[in-house]
Design a protein that fits this description.
The chain has 293 residues and is α/β, with parallel strands linked by helices. The protein has twelve helices and ten strands. The radius of gyration is 18 Å and the shape is globular.
């Protein structure tokens, strides 16, 4: 059995159901793999000795800039399901209305470059936003208390807020500017595992492809099957609604999971060079070569 370690981009949630399902149904074992999955809240990508790490394309490119040897090998959704959420009472319906409001942020420079572009493109002044340095783990405890708005994945935080009876405003960043329909969440592999265990990487991605196709067909059944591996405080109705929200964007037009679209990747990578977050483009930023046809 080949041992592989994966670090998720957040605590396990409905973005990761395919990983959990492949583990639960024994798809990894069938492929000769012993897969170790870890997940926690973090705003910066850290390998922690893993073979694979999940996160947004932006963070992966920043890691490459720092000399960390990794290549993106999969994207979890075929549309970037992220944007800015706020309570309706905050009156934030578009980027420029973040002026004078408290927005949580992560430390990396890419966060500021990205949100600045969106706000300024909408005629706003990014420097008038009150920035709160916080990696949000509890959206209910954050909005309306320490912050007014947060960059989230729609599949989770929005559903948590709605489940709690909150009225919210939300705008998807990719709908505001196509640059922000980038590859997130995605998964990168270390150069070491790609070089030393290519067959294990292929087997791992094949198992995930199989599992996510099944999630797309039966989102409610799949998420409830891995219920015990997801947050204990999440209700079944929240999990089902979240997974059903994701189902239409899990697969590409050919019904395949994980393939990275060149346009989505390149628009963001070129933007990061333009604003100076990374100095140049890199060799082998992403690949689909480890997927079966």
């Amino acid at each position: 059995m080949e041992h592989l370690k994966v670090v998720l981009d957040w605590f396990p949630n409905t973005n990761h159901t395919g990983y959990l399902l492949a583990q639960k149904r024994g798809y990894f074992t069938e492929a000769g793999l012993d897969v170790e999955i870890h997940g926690d809240v973090h705003g910066a990508m850290e390998l922690h000795g893993a073979d694979f790490v999940c996160g947004p394309e932006i963070a992966m490119l920043e890691c490459m800039e720092r000399g960390i040897g990794m290549t993106a090998v999969a994207v979890m959704t075929q549309k970037c399901d992220s944007g800015i959420v706020s309570l309706k009472e905050a009156g934030i319906t578009r980027p420029r209305e973040l002026e004078g409001k408290r927005l949580t942020h992560w430390t990396p420079a890419w966060f500021h470059a990205a949100i600045r572009r969106v706000v300024e493109a909408d005629g706003g002044d990014y420097d008038k936003i009150q920035l709160v340095n916080l990696d949000v783990g509890d959206i209910l405890a954050t909005l309306g208390t320490v912050a007014d708005a947060t960059w989230v994945y729609e599949n989770w935080e929005n559903q948590v807020l709605l489940e709690a009876g909150k009225e919210i405003n939300y705008f998807n960043l990719g709908d505001v500017d196509p640059v922000f329909d980038f590859c997130a969440p995605a998964m990168a592999a270390t150069h070491e595992v790609l070089r030393e265990k290519p067959q294990a990487v292929r087997a791992f991605l094949s198992a995930l492809d199989r599992a996510y196709r099944e999630v797309a067909v039966d989102p409610a059944g799949a998420v409830l099957e891995v219920r015990e591996l997801l947050p204990a405080d999440a209700t079944d109705s929240l999990l089902i609604r979240s997974q059903e929200h994701l189902a239409p964007i899990l697969l590409d037009a050919q019904g395949r999971w994980g393939r990275i679209d060149a346009l989505r990747w390149n628009r963001m990578a070129d933007f990061l060079v333009e604003v100076g977050v990374i100095s140049h483009r890199f060799d082998n930023e992403y690949t689909n070569d480890f997927f079966s046809l």
